[in-house]
Specification:
Keywords: Membrane, Transmembrane, Transmembrane helix. About 25% of the residues lie in helices and about 20% in strands. It folds into four domains: about 1-30 and about 165-210 and about 435-480, no CATH class; about 35-160, no CATH class; about 210-430, no CATH class; about 500-795, no CATH class. It is built from 13 helices and 21 strands. The N and C termini lie far apart (about 125 Å). The chain is an alpha+beta fold and about 800 residues long. The chain is elongated.
């Protein structure tokens, strides 16, 4: 069973190792994979979505070719979808079967067959231009796509090819190779266990099967007579004479011991001669001691001595030795153990022994040794004899085999006369080889096998899954904030309008245009980045300065660091961004609050409101710029006042002061605009002649919609604007009204018999708490600028 289990484990290990190695070979056979396709339609736009770009890991090499110019924009897929809208376009996908690029028409209007230039939009992270052919190398993460066009009027480029490098990753090769190595170790262990177990079981079975019966003489030859017959033979002996004992009653161990004793006497006769006749007579008078006879009391014991053969261990002296009756004189002895051999022995005093309480006769010590019976197996070789002086090389590895030749032990010389004879137990056949070194040799193999299996699995992270520390298949250099974008996409949340890099680029571009407009005193260059009240303020400043160069210009656009940013997170337009940026000039001033808006995906972000924050203002907590916040058009809970009503309510407070019905909604702390307007109106009213002219004040909201973003506590930062109208009219036809400065510059006249109307625009930034939180509306900052002045018409004047 162990052999079967070892074979099964080996086959399993071979299968795992082969499959793992094939995966490694296949993964490293090619260095890239490429997909290409040809556009047959005449759409002006091509969209390569994120799923196509991240079909394989690594850097994407995109090659686009066609006739004419080629423009490519990289942005988030939702932004590209918003920009494309219903314009005719083709979506590039990867066919799973053929591996080629396929062009599928997207949902579009049949009338929109052209598109404006995709370059210069704030949504894109990168833009590229080429002519005829354009090659890009990008590492775009999930959620990013490519938008391709020619010139917007002509069809998009027709040839697209995308290639990805193969990093040699085989994430299952490591576990397969490791599993194969483990199974290989298990199979080797089972095989070794089976071999050892079979060897232990085969010893008694082999001894039982072998029925070699060598005949050994029971007595030593006469003194001086050379022994020419080997002390033992490996052939089958002739049937023994009837000695009164059945074959089944004879113990093989007892027979082996008797053979050993006889061989010792025979070897002693061959190797030694008595020095004189008296010594020979003494030796002849001594009786032979049989193998089953116990040692006498005065005979020195050799149990403590080393065995004759170093590779064998003598049995324990305490072990009981069964005895059996010897064969009759001159009768061959039945020997069942073919691995016994003779050893020198010294005769001792005979002692009577009994078997089953019956006395056993001792053989005559002077009887001649019977010749060894010839083997009944003719084909079995007989051992050869050596001269007394031949050396015998004992090899411990030949355990269980008798030494070749007639030598009876490792020493070729016979023991001296009178030396104590060896104990019969000492010459018993040991049970096997000396295995004292075997475990050490086995343990030496274990590290080798372990190191080999580990070497097969490899240490490369490309061969292991990511869960076990393997290398990741995600791009190594993703676009900034892509990890957060990926988390938002996973959660199904909308992405922020822009990231930090895009926001900085937008503000820098607005600052550049503002500086150019200030230098040229021309508002035309502001239109790509300014709108509504922010544009009106700067345009009025330029107009007044053009009429009177002595008038100061507009406040410089801030160029410092962005210290607070809340981009709107939404997939719909318009989108808003609230930014707080430091002035950046040499003279430290309060930072500016800027509200940016994008009315559609194809428009740029423009400054709709820019105010200087009031001193010691505390901004509410808002979401990080990488996550963004919802806009005010999707409030989860109502505010203390609706954003659409905010401008009108504050205008009523300016007009009526504490008597306004909305006065309790607005906090007076930090609101210096109320005081400033109240003081200016009082000063103007005191300067005119009440009998010749009258002055009227009106505060109203503008037509600009509110923009804003939500805060973490459910409130919102809202930007609105209001207008102050100051009307100065004559009460009599004889009156002449005069103005100066910015009013005269904007009105184009310094005096009038009818009067003047002056317009002030106030850009306001509020924090509006939610109803659940409660509290008063706080003014964060404002900008008050005269944006217009004109002479009154006759129908606008009432005399009296």
């Amino acid at each position: 069973m162990r052999f079967i289990l070892a074979a099964i484990a080996f086959l399993g290990s071979a299968a795992l190792l082969v499959v793992g190695w094939l995966q490694v070979t296949e993964a490293r056979a090619a260095d890239s994979v490429e997909a290409s396709g040809t556009l047959t339609q005449e759409s002006p736009l091509l969209v390569i979505p994120s799923d196509t770009l991240i079909e394989h890991a690594g850097t994407q090499t995109i090659t686009i070719s066609g006739d004419g110019p080629i423009r490519v924009a990289i942005g988030r897929q939702a932004d590209i979808a918003g920009w494309v809208g219903t314009t005719q376009h083709e979506i590039v996908t990867l066919d799973d079967t053929s591996g080629a690029l396929v062009f599928t028409p997207g949902e579009a209007s049949a009338d929109e067959t052209t598109a404006p230039s995709i370059l210069g939009n704030d949504l894109w992270f990168q833009e590229y231009e080429g002519d005829g052919e354009l090659e890009l190398q990008q590492t775009l993460p999930v959620g990013f796509a490519l938008l391709v066009q020619s010139d917007g009027e002509s069809p998009a480029p027709s040839q697209v090819s995308i290639s990805w490098p193969l990093d040699g990753r085989a994430p299952m090769a490591g576990p397969l190779l490791l599993g194969g190595g483990v199974l290989l170790l298990i199979s080797l262990g089972l095989l070794l266990w089976a071999l050892l177990s079979m060897r232990r079981r085969s010893k008694p079975q082999r001894q039982a099967r072998e029925e070699l019966e060598p005949e050994v003489a029971s007595e030593a030859p006469a003194v001086g007579e050379a022994a020419t017959t080997p002390a033992f033979a490996f052939g089958r002996s002739a049937p023994s004479a009837d000695d009164g004992l059945d074959a089944v009653d004879v113990d093989p161990v007892e027979q082996s011991q008797s053979v050993v004793a006889a061989s010792v006497r025979l070897s002693e006769g061959n190797q030694t001669e008595p020095a004189d006749e008296s010594s020979a007579a003494v030796a002849a008078d001594q009786q032979a001691v049989h193998a089953w006879a116990p040692p006498t009391a005065d005979e020195p014991s050799r149990q403590a001595d080393e065995p004759a053969f170093p590779s064998f261990r003598a049995p324990s002296a305490e072990a009981p030795v069964p005895v059996s009756a010897p064969a009759a004189d001159g009768t061959p002895v039945d020997v069942d153990d073919p691995f016994s051999w003779s050893a020198p022995s010294t005769p001792s005093e005979p002692e009577a022994e009994t078997v089953d309480d019956a006395p056993i006769a001792q053989p005559d010590a002077h009887a001649e040794a019977a010749p060894v019976a010839a083997s009944t197996d003719e084909g079995r070789p007989e051992p050869s004899t050596k001269d007394d002086g031949d050396e015998h090389d004992d090899n411990s590895s030949d355990a269980g085999e008798p030494p070749s030749g007639g030598a009876s032990g490792p020493s070729p010389e016979a023991p001296a006369d009178g030396a104590p004879a060896a104990e019969p137990q000492q010459w018993r056949r040991p049970r096997g080889r000396d295995r004292s070194q075997a475990p050490k040799r086995l343990f030496r193999l274990i590290p080798v096998l372990l190191v080999g299996s580990i070497a097969l699995t490899g240490c490369s992270a490309d061969l292991w899954p990511e869960q076990f520390g393997g290398s990741t298949s995600a791009p190594t250099t993703p676009t900034p904030t892509s990890s957060i974008d990926q988390a938002l996409l996973t959660e199904g949340e909308a992405l922020p309008a822009v990231n930090a890099q895009q926001l900085t680029e937008i503000l820098d571009d607005a600052a550049r245009l503002a500086q150019e407009g200030d230098a040229a005193n021309n508002p035309d260059g502001l239109k790509p980045r300014f709108t509504q009240a922010a544009y009106q303020e700067r345009a009025a400043e330029y107009q007044a300065k053009a009429a009177d160069n002595a008038l100061p210009g507009p406040v410089a656009f801030p160029t410092g660091e962005v210290v607070y940013a809340v981009p709107q997170a939404s997939d719909a337009w318009p989108k808003s961004i609230f930014v707080v940026r430091e002035a950046g000039g040499e003279t430290p001033t309060a930072p500016f609050g800027i509200m940016l808006t994008q009315s559609s995906a194809r428009d740029t972000y423009k400054v709709t409101s820019i105010v200087q924050l009031t001193p010691d203002v505390t901004l509410p907590e808002a979401a990080p710029a990488e996550i963004g916040a919802p806009g005010i058009d999707g409030l989860e809970q109502p505010l203390v006042i609706a954003p659409e009503e905010l401008a009108a309510a504050y205008a009523d407070v300016i007009s009526n002061g504490d008597g306004s019905q909305f006065a309790a909604l607005f906090s007076p702390d930090g609101d210096s605009l109320r005081t400033q307007i109240s003081e200016a109106r009082a000063a103007v009213s005191g300067e005119i002649d009440a009998n010749a002219a009258r002055i009227e004040f009106q505060t109203r909201p503008t037509d600009d919609p509110p923009f804003g973003v939500q805060t973490l506590d459910g409130g919102a930062i809202v930007a609105v604007s209001i207008e102050e109208v100051e009307k100065l009219s004559a009460r009599t036809q004889l009156a002449t009204l005069s103005v100066q400065g910015r009013t005269a510059a904007l009105a184009g006249a310094s005096s009038s018999s009818l009067g003047f109307e002056t317009l002030y625009t106030n850009q306001l930034m509020f924090y509006v708490p939610s109803e659940a939180t409660g509290g008063a509306v706080q003014l964060l900052g404002f900008a008050n600028t005269m944006t217009g002045a004109r002479q009154l018409n006759a129908n606008e004047v009432t005399y009296g």
